[in-house]
Amino acid sequence: MLSQAHATVKQLIAQFQAHSSHYLSPKYQEAEVRADFIDKLFTALGWDVAHDYQKNPYAQEVKVEKAQCQADAASQKRADYAFSLAPDYKTVQFFVEAKKPSLTLRQNRDGYFQTAKYGWNAQTGVSILTDFEEIVIIDCRAKPDFDTILQNELRYFKYTELQDEDTFAEFYWLFSREAVAAGNLRRYIADLPKAKSSGKQLRLLGGRYLSIDDSFLSYIGDIRLHLAQAFYQNNPALNSYQLTEATQRTIDRLVFMRFLEDKQIEPETLLYNIASAAHPWAKFITECKRLDTKYNGIVFKPHFIDQNSFLGADETAFRDIASDLDHTNTPYDFNYIPVHILGSIYERFLGNIIAIDNGKAAIEQKPEVRKAGGVFYTPKYIVDYIVENTVGKIIAGKNPDYITKLKFADIACGSGSFLIGVYDCLLDYHKNYYNRYPDKAKSAGCHFDEATGTWVLSIKQKQRILLNNIYGVDIDLQATEVTQLSLFLKLLEDETMASANDMQVLFADKILPNLSGNICCGNSLIGYEIMDIMGDELAQDEDIRRKINPFDFQAAFASVFAAGGFDAIVGNPPYVKVSDKELLAYFKQHFQHQNYQYDLYLLFLERYHALLKEKGLLGVIVPNTWLQSVTFTKIRKHLLGDYRWHKILHGKEHIFDAVVDTHVLVFEKGSLKGKSLFDVDITENQTIVFYQQLDQNSFDKNGGIINILAKPEATALFKKIQAASETLGTAAMVYNGIKPFEKGKGTPPQTEQIVETKPFVKENQPKPAGEHWKPLLRGSLINRYENLWSEDSWIEYGEWLAAPRDSKIFEAEEKIVVRQTGDRIIATVIGKDIICRNNLHIVIAQQRNHKFLLGVLNSKLANFCYYQINPERGESLAEVKKAHVEQLPMPKIRSAAQQKLHNEIVKLVEQMLAAQPKARAALSDSDKNFHERFIASLEQRINQAVYQIYGLTADEIALIEAAV
Predict the structure, then answer these.
(1) Is residue 273 part of a domain?
(2) pTM tops 0.85
């Protein structure tokens, strides 16, 4: 509580004031001020600094670095305090760096830089530097620059200022546990103005600042280009694949060396010694060979860059690279860059390859990445959700011997983000297990940590977990190498030089395991059966074989499939449409649950089933189109019939920085028996909450569209409305509008110049001369009951258009048009000889009255039904597709009372069509208000008439009104 905290802090202030000469003496050390004041200050703010309650060292919100006198501040590798929130103990909310009070903080450039460096690397946003006498809130959003670091001060408090209740409240409502848990600190950071950047950064980035991942990505991107150019200059016989691999392996080694330095597993002079050597490249290779004898793994294993025939990089260029990466010359600190952040950096890094262009090395985006619109890394909170609900559920309550037999995979692993999450989950579970059952810890190989009083896993145990439980496949060789690197970093995350050396002494073994049998390169969708389709072409053309990269799961993971398959598969498969003819032929032959549109994510959804053990769990994030697209009936039927659904997590906002709507599936392999309920969760602002529980049995087993956001009572009402209706697709014909331009389409086929210059469409001008020019109507030119075309948009209609449609559609005397773009039904009627673009749907009825259908379409009831059919409401790229329009219910007229209401709706719609132009043309506010009130009354009467046709109750009407 604020008042209690303030009372405690005022006592601390009084104590400091009473003996200030002692506390400000140079003899009074940092360790003392931490114990006497700083620990107590944050305890007063509600944090369990002394771990009086949070005894489990793996479940503590405050990580306290052991207090000691530092002979050299630069040698300190960890912040004094790191504050997190349960249950995510690994995500730091803010750091506190302590200094002794005799120092003047505002003159302590080193302290500011150190604090900002911790916070920036861990992405906390802000952190605190304090000696209790002074408290400084430091901006950690920008890459710290030593010369300008004092400008990173956001707020400064003298300890005596905290005696004032309002001033203390300002500090309390940012950094108390209560405030951080309520999101106050996160909102404070989000509302800060742009972070202050160094002058250099400002010039380079136009005033923007870079987060740690963006900055390091740019940094190693520059290193890659310089290395590639240097390698190619000295080794011109290298092809693109070899140059990419040589550069990647060199960067992996440099990053790994720096990691070992920062973790103090190796001396922190590794890179310095390389940069200082007379021949830096030769020194680098010598160090790599030494480290290989100790560490093993793919990073340092013999490679062609180690051979004398490979001339390496220019001495000066490589010296600069090694020197720049040395910890004394860069703010990057691998103590605080989480392994999953390194994964996100590498994921984007791998989206490019090194190409040789006109005799020069250059960086190019991979074609598949360009096609997909970029590389999008799965956020950690989504990885955690998936892993917790798959691997976490499987291992819960099990002992390590049982877990040893379990096999977990990501078959499109990229840089390994999901496998890192799985490995992290397994490590945490084993650590907690042995601390719950300490009698089993020593015999299992654990070490007792005297400092924390806990049992910790040995390197040997971590190796076994990695080898026994973790499997990955990716089509990209560099991705599989980075996955191994990431897993090695995770294995060594909590190790020290002593533990690493003990591993070698005790077991005469290398520190890192060989993962070549666990992490494999290949195409998870295509086996060697493709030889039957491509034959000699695949056998003889190495480039094509590299691109397709067939993979045999049974051969690669024989022991896994001898036991029935994987216990869980997790991941984020690629979302790319397939267009290659040979691949399409293969997929049509080997995949049974696909409709005519082939997308890689749909193929992966089918592929998972064959690789999972019976009752195995699937946890993946994929686009939500498989639920809603009318063309994906087969995959819906497969997922409904061959899995038991546990959870679907709907992303209320975009989970990725891409304009694609995704959700998470957690399914269990096996046909549905007994229990059929599953949870629908919602994510908003990276917070996951339960939304509702649905019955899997309630969905159409033949593959009909599924709406997981519809409430059961809304679904029941929709079914009632459907029972009293025919679909619009039955009552009328629904057509797409014309597509004017597309290269190769039309008669004669359109050229690229025609597509660019668009000669058949004229906008914002009078009608051109010529008999073929007709009015052109697009989606933005209609509103509900309104045609906004104003004689200035024209099209030269004929067979030269890319998709002109049947001219009889446009010759119809009357028709309804429905706007495609948007998340609700917007419709009006138009007359003949108006050509409609393909962002409009055209509805023509032979037996039903168009104005009646229009009134129903624009009613609240129709929009309510539309939201049951297509739950894209509020989404940025929402579209009313032709298939959605065809499914909308239109009431059957079966009685005289219904016919009377039908006629009433026709009359009201005619009045509405006449009223809308008058309202738009009104000049005065009074006239506008007059017409708008009349239109609102017509809307209300049309809605009531539609409700009455269906005989809805007051409760049912209220349900519709609340939903739309």
Answers:
(1) yes
(2) no
